[in-house]
Design goal:
- Helices cover 43% and strands 19% of the residues.
- The protein is α/β, with parallel strands linked by helices.
- It folds into 2 domains: 1-99 and 262-353, Isopropylmalate Dehydrogenase; 115-253, Isopropylmalate Dehydrogenase.
- The chain has a 10-stranded mixed beta sheet with strand order 2-1-3-12-11-4-5-10-8-9, sandwiched between helices. Strands 6-7 form a two-stranded antiparallel ribbon.
- Helix 7 (219-228) runs parallel beside helix 8 (240-253).
- The structure holds nicotinamide-adenine-dinucleotide (NAD), 3-isopropylmalic acid and manganese (II) ion (MN).
- 3-isopropylmalic acid binds next to helix 4.
Length: 353
């Protein structure tokens, strides 16, 4: 079966790293490892500035109905300081496609990539399950008395029993399958309404999985534990904003933004795959962007579409490139974005099978 992929490079280094992911997918296709069809969309800052479109209903319907998955670069452009196109596109797709799981796997592939002294003594290999359609990201609130001394901004946060139930259940299902512990990260001490509900739902679901070890932690203490003993974590389930922050912290433990992929999914319905990092305007156009996070995101896409062999071949090729020293400057090398993409595409083509 053909995997129909909509490709949105976006802004800054987004298109640079996604081009390399597409080359690797092209190699997967050529090698007969999976049948992929890629269609490119121009959406991002340039498209918004020239056409006024962020994400129209027509484009949204096409992305939803004509594709199995979306491969996404990053959005964010200094010419649009309010970031409205980025919110419409990225948060728009996450919310409108109801992609409630933001799965962010963190794995230390080669010990020297970690800034931790303890790296190499125990494997770092965990996944963040970030709730992706609620929390403080719902975008509602208001500003009163703007520009006066009495100015007041209110940002609303939403947590529904159904919304928490489905992400926590997904985390427990994964933990049961992988044989790992589930850790809830919250802030129930300071925000008892929202996170009190998280704790109640989490406890109820934990009782349904007697064979899965679980714990409830405060996110601030968890941040310390992540740096001190990252090897003790299997799956961390958390809210939208806390998951955003924890995923950049965690990325840094395993080599930084250039190595952290992510999947935004509603299982069996749709998925959007993107690196955890942003558009990095500071290095855009220099050839310094590490395409590995984007390429590993393409592997997650293949994995979710059932092309497991192809996904594993790509993931192993990335590990091999890191061991051989084929690295961009962010991880201590001198290779360019295109050189890394070329090497990985060639490796996929050369492989057995
Ligand atoms: P960023 O992730 O773009 O960059 C942070 C730092 O990491 C920068 O120094 C950058 O050069 C470096 N970096 C990031 N990705 C890299 C890569 N692949 N290779 C090498 N170095 C890399 O975060 P930021 O600077 O806070 O945000 C820039 C813009 O991106 C903002 O507009 C922000 O809103 C947006 N953003 C978008 C997404 C997304 O689309 N998913 C995610 C995060 C940030
Ligand atoms: C991410 C990004 C986004 C988020 C921004 C660009 C809205 O930081 O995907 O991690 O906060 O979810
Ligand atoms: Mn983020």
């Amino acid at each position: 079966m053909t995997i129909r992929i909509a490709v949105i490079g976006g802004d800054g280094i987004g298109p640079e790293v996604i081009d390399q992911a597409c080359r690797v997918l092209g190699a997967v296709q050529e090698k007969g490892l999976a049948d992929v069809e890629m269609v490119h969309f121009p959406h991002g800052a340039d498209h918004y500035l020239t056409s006024g479109e962020t994400l129209s209903d027509v484009t949204f319907t096409t992305l939803r109905d004509d594709f199995d998955a979306i491969l996404f670069g990053a959005v964010g452009d200094p010419r649009i300081p309010g970031g409205e196109h980025a919110r419409d596109l990225l948060l728009g797709l996450r919310f409108r496609l109801d992609l409630f799981i933001n799965r962010r796997p963190l794995r230390l592939r080669v010990a020297d990539l970690s800034p931790l002294k303890s790296a190499g003594t125990a494997p770092i290999d965990f996944v963040i399950y970030r709730e992706n359609t609620e929390g403080l990201y719902v975008g509602t609130g208001r500003v009163e008395n703007e520009g006066t001394d009495l100015e007041l901004a209110i940002t609303e946060g939403l947590a529904s029993r159904r919304g928490i139930d489905r992400i926590v259940r997904a985390a427990f299902d994964y933990a049961e399958y992988a044989g790992v512990r589930v850790t809830l990260a919250d802030k129930a001490n300071a925000m008892p309404h929202m996170f009190g509900l998280w704790r109640r739902v989490f406890s109820e679901i934990a009782a349904e999985y007697p064979n899965v070890e679980s714990e409830m932690t405060y996110v601030d203490a968890l941040a310390m534990e992540l740096v001190r003993v990252p090897e003790r974590f299997g799956v961390i389930v958390t809210s939208n904003l806390l998951g955003d922050i924890l995923s950049d912290l965690s990325a840094e433990l395993v080599g930084g933004p250039g190595l952290a992929p992510s999947a935004n999914v509603n299982p069996g319905v749709h998925g959007l795959y993107e690196p955890v990092h942003g558009s990095a305007p500071d290095i855009s156009g220099t050839g310094r962007a590490n395409p590995m996070a984007a390429i590993l995101s393409a592997a997650l896409l293949l994995r979710d579409q059932g092309a497991l062999d192809a996904a594993v071949i790509i993931e192993d090729a990335v590990t091999e490139a890191l061991i051989e020293g084929l690295r961009t400057p962010d991880i201590g090398g001198t290779a360019t974005t295109v050189e890394v993409g070329s090497w990985l595409a060639a490796r996929v083509l050369e492989g057995e099978g």
